[in-house]
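So, can you check these tokens?
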Amino acid sequence: ALLMVYQSFFIGGGPGSSWTFYPPLSVDGQPELSLDSMILGLHTVGIGS
């Protein structure tokens, strides 16, 4: 799970959110999977702990 969090920094230049890790609230959103990978990895780490 932590590997998913680390890999999100290398997909498409990293997650495009601020320090809050909220997904961008726009119609376009963020086309890369980096923010999705970061959020999924953090949820997986939380469930595993």
Summary: The CA atoms of residues 12 and 31 lie 9 Å apart.
